[in-house]
Every structure is written in C-alpha cells, then in structure tokens.
Amino acid sequence: MNLAWISLVALLTAITLSMLTNVNVGVVSLAFAWIVGVYLGGMPLNTVIGTFPVQLFLTLVGVTLLFGMAGINGTLGRLASRAVSLCRGNAGVIPVMFFLIALALSSIGPGNIATTAILAPMAMAVGARAAVPPFLMALMVGNGAQAGALSPFAPTGVIVNGIMERIGLGGHEMQTYGNNLFAHAIVTFGAYFLFGGMKLFTRRAAEPQLSQGDQTGARGDVELVETEPFEWVHWITIAILTTLVLVVVVFEMQVGMAALTGAALLSLVGAGNEKEAIKKMPWGVVIMVCGVTVLIGVLEKTQGMALFADLLAKISTPGTVTLTIAFVTGLVSVYSSTSGVVLPAFLPTVPALAQQLGGADPLAIASAMYVGGHLVDLSPLSTIGALCIAALPPEADAKKLFNQLLAWGLSMMVVGALICWVLF
User: Fold this and answer.
1) pTM higher than 0.85, yes or no?
2) What angle do the packed helices 350-357 and 304-314 form, to 10 degrees?
3) CA pair distance 424, 422, nearest whole angstrom
C-alpha cells in the first residue's frame, strides 16, 4: 500500500470514527497526520505543523467569543424576544417569525448551533402556549439557524469560505451564503405549508391560563414571551456587533481579529464576561475542524486527496455529479459533523474532481457539497436536532419528535440531492 492510500485510509478512518463514536476526530486526525506525515512520509515535523490553519483558528475563536459574550449578557435574548412580540399572538406568524429570527441571529455571527441553543427553549415554550406543533417549531428554528450558517460572519461560513479560498474558489462568499439560504427556505416553507402552517392563521394563539403577572398586547393579545428592558451593557453590545458587520463588509477587515477586538472592548468596559464566554466556547468543534484540516494538508502532500477525488469521480458523471455528491455528503452528515468533518474532508477534492469529470463546474460541485451536507442537519443525531428535542417542555412527547426529525433528516438526503441537481 503506497503512501497516498495510507493517508486516504487515515482520513476515511477519521470520518468513520466521527460517525460511530463520540471521540473528537480532530485529536485523532492530528495523531494520524503526525504518524503518516513524519514517520511514514518522511516529512519534517514543521511541514506537518505548518498545515495548521492559524487564520481559521483565530477567526473561529474571535467570532465565538464575541457572540458568546453577547449571549451571556442577555443581548441576543432581548433582541429575539422583541422580535417574537411582533407576532401579537398570531399562531400562523409565530413559526415564520422564529425562522426569520434564527436566520438573522445565525447570519450575524453566532452560527447555527449557538443560535439554536439560544432560541429553541423559547420557541418550544412559545409554541406550546400557541398550540403550534413541536415538529413545526423545530423545523422553523433549526432550518432558520441552518439557513444563516454560511454567512461570512458565522463559524461554519468562516470554515467553508476558508477552504474555498484555499482551493481557488474564493470570492464567492455571498453566493455561498445565498445558495444555502435559498435551499433551506425552499424546504422549510414547503414543510410549513405541508404540515399545517396555513391552518394556524385561522385561529389566534391558544389562550393560556393567565397568572396575575401576565401581560396583554394593545389589542388584548397574550404576550407569549417576556421582554426585558435594554440596559447600557446591551446597547454597547449592539453597537459593537453593528460596528463589526460594518468594518468587515465596508472596509474588508479580517473578521476574526475584528471580533476579538470587539470582545476585548466589551470586557474592558465591563459589559461582557469573557471568562464565562471562554468556558462556553465550542472548543471541541474548533479542535475538530483544525485537526481534520491538518490531516487534509498531509493528504494533499501525499497525493491522497487526488486519490479521494478519483474515487468520487468513479461514481459520478458531469450530468449527475451534483446529485451524487449532495447525496453522499448528506449521507455522511446525518451521522457526522458537517462543518467539522464532512466539508473539510470533501471540499478540497473539488478541483481534482471537476478536472477528472471534464466539463463539470467546480463551483456547482462545491455548492452541492455544502448545501447537501447542511440540509440533513435537523436529524436528532445532529446537534441542531438534539437541541430542539432537549428544549421540549416536560409534557411534550420527546420520542415522537425524535422519530419525526429522524425521518426528516433521512428524507433530506434525497430531497437535498434533487434540489442541488436542479439548482446547480
């Protein structure tokens, strides 16, 4: 077995472990990269270490730290609760509003997982009071968060755009974001109409038993979520988050360093608890992404990545490549981390895959990979689906929601593949 095959087996082993175990595949990938690169490939240790994605690491740390602080000090929750209050108790509007809130929050920086963690408990509680089915609420919140996942400011968007830049497909950040958003909007609002969303407009929110402290809206509508007042720490946080978006979009500053600067300002003025935010940062995901990236770097040097592309090309044709690739990435993503394992492993194969197929559009193949991988992520085997189930009120049927989300996630392998085939 030559070195290319050995390195490819190491990658496939890491992917398999990510699907079957709870081991952090980033740690395993770093070990594989060291063994394969230094001891089997004869590479200098500095060459292997040099594949560590320093800029990606700093960006993920900066973005997750800043928005972690904004979540802990209550700014994101207050913004979300005010958006919900605009529904005025209308049961049909509530799921749509939660989709839009999740999309907006995920897009401006927290990303899909943090946004779902923030909104899912509120969504399930509000949905129970308004008699909206938990499955519909989970779809709207989870897919809304997923729709914003590839924003240039979100952690997954940072990962994908970094890989796209490295493989020669940079400069398409807004197209990447738009493709993912559009695909999720199609399936989400298709589900909204299919699972009774329009029927909710024929009634008001279910009237709960009011306690002495309950509030009513201007037309007598029940307030479904408590809105707390903004204080100085929240206004400062909003100003810093707004400034972050402006300096990155208008002045093209590096988002990670800009976010770290914003986090430092919040800490210095006493508006954010950086110690608590650091504890809650998704370090497991950061290690996973960086570790897999290092292993991919070793594969590129050993020609293992070209071999992987060759294997993918054998099951595809120029006319079916987006369909096939979306299905394969969706299948793996049901059981594995899309941002941490699947996309770092598959996206680097795009240039070689397009070249081998001849006439295939590299950007279309990449789009099928990241859209197909994300559409299945509401499965209860993924973090997004699990967070929605964990947020259910005690009286709700968790097993029923688990089965519904599992069926949804598995069906999205086929639906997502068809969508990618049509769109790309």
Assistant:
1) no
2) 50
3) 6
pLDDT in tens, 126-168: 777 777 889 999 999 999 999 999 998 888 898 899 899 988 9
**For residue 22, what are the domain limits?**
1-50+289-302
Q: Tell me the average pLDDT across 255-277.
A: 90
User: Residue 95 and residue 131: Cα distance in Å, rounded?
Assistant: 11
Give long-range contacts, CB 8 A cutoff, 24+ apart: 310-313: 310/352, 310/356, 312/349, 312/353, 313/353, 313/356, 313/357
Query: Quick one: pLDDT band at residue 117, thresholds 50, 70, 90?
Result: confident
Sorted by sequence, the CB contacts under 8 Å of residue 212 that are 6+ apart come out as none
Would 96 be classed as within a structural domain? no
Instruction: Outline where 86-203 has alpha helix (H).
Output: 93-108, 111-129, 134-147, 155-166, 173-194
Closest C-alpha among 377, 391, 394 to residue 117: 391
Q: How far apart are CA 206 and CA 132, in angstroms?
A: 9
Closest residue by Cα to residue 304 from 22, 50, 43, 56: 43
Asked, for residue 60, whether it belongs to a domain, the answer is: no
Closest CA to 95 of 222, 170, 205: 205
Q: How many domains are contained in the chain?
A: 1
In angstroms, the CA 121 to CA 76 distance is 14
Q: Which of 240, 253, 231, 286 is nearest to 70 (CA)?
A: 240
Q: 10 Å Cβ neighbour count for 380?
A: 22
**223: in domain:** no
Q: What is the mean pLDDT of the chain?
A: 84
Token output for 89: 């108790």
CA distance 212 to 210: 7
Kindly tell me if the per-residue pLDDT of 253 is higher than 50.
yes
Digit-coded pLDDT (tens) for 177-222: 999 999 999 999 999 988 877 777 765 544 443 333 344 433 334 4
- On whether the CB atoms of residues 143 and 100 are closer than 8 A, the answer is no
Residues 6+ apart with CB under 8 A from 297: 33, 48, 50, 51
Q: How far is 156 from 278, CA to CA, in rounded Å?
A: 19
Cα gap 332→336, rounded to integer Å: 6
How far is it, in rounded angstroms, from Cα 285 to Cα 160? 14
Q: Report whether 333 contacts 420 (CB < 8 A).
A: no
Residue 284 lies in a domain: no
Residue 204's SS3 state is strand
320 near 350, Cβ under 8 Å?
no
pLDDT of residue 248: 77
